[in-house]
Amino acid sequence: MASKLYRLKLGSISHGTMRPRDLLPALIDASKTVRLSDQDRRSVQEIERDFRSWWEIEDWTNNQTHHAEMVIEQLFDTLDNYVPAYTYLGSHEGDGSDYGVWIDWPAIEDSIHDGDINKGPHYINAKYSKAPYWLQVNDHGNSTLFRKIQRGSGWVWHEEWSVV
């Protein structure tokens, strides 16, 4: 069995539908890819048990759909704790039916302005950076966000995510 990640990966979790009967199992599957806290894992397992009998039903009642929508909100709230820094779990800006983990560019720009993120194309020694994050952007626009962490007696940059 492959080891689980601490954070959800960037990208789509469910695409092309906004139906709760499609979104709910996709979010449950996504939850199985990360190391959830014991409480979160029990909560997701309970949701999966409660809805397992519904998967084969073609047309959900209005009450079933409403209940599923409320549970989806709960799953979004839970899984939002497992996204990388400066990302969000939700629908894609350009496609409302594409749910996944996406980069929160406005939050990044705000944090650059506030001094919480350094931005530049070249390596910055973590020891001398006051900001806890560094966004490296190359001449092609590829971006990598690094988080400053202490390793031993020094500081190093740890990659949070990278996009092309």
How much of the sequence lies in strands comes to 25-35%
**Low-confidence runs (pLDDT<50, min 5 residues)?**
none
Radius of gyration: 19 Å
The biggest beta sheet reads: 4 strands, mixed
How does the overall form come out from the CA principal axes?
A: elongated
User: Taking all residues together, what is the mean pLDDT?
Assistant: 91
Instruction: Spell out the helices and strands N to C.
Output: EHHHEEHEEEE
Count of distinct strands: 7
Task: Report on this structure.
With 164 residues, this protein is an alpha+beta fold. It has 2 domains: 11-103, no CATH class; 105-163, no CATH class. The protein is 33% helix and 29% strand. The protein has helices at 20-31, 38-51, 62-79, 105-114, and strands at 11-15, 87-92, 95-103, 117-120, 133-137, 143-151, 154-163. The strands form 2 sheets. A 4-stranded mixed beta sheet has the order 4-5-6-7. Strand 6 (143-151) and strand 7 form a beta hairpin. The longest helix has 18 residues, at 62-79. The relative contact order is 0.14. The model has no long low-confidence stretch (mean pLDDT 91).
Topology, element by element:
Layout: E1 11-15, H1 20-31, H2 38-51, H3 62-79, E2 87-92, E3 95-103, H4 105-114, E4 117-120, E5 133-137, E6 143-151, E7 154-163
Parallel strand pairs: 4-5
Antiparallel strand pairs: 1-3, 2-3, 5-6, 6-7
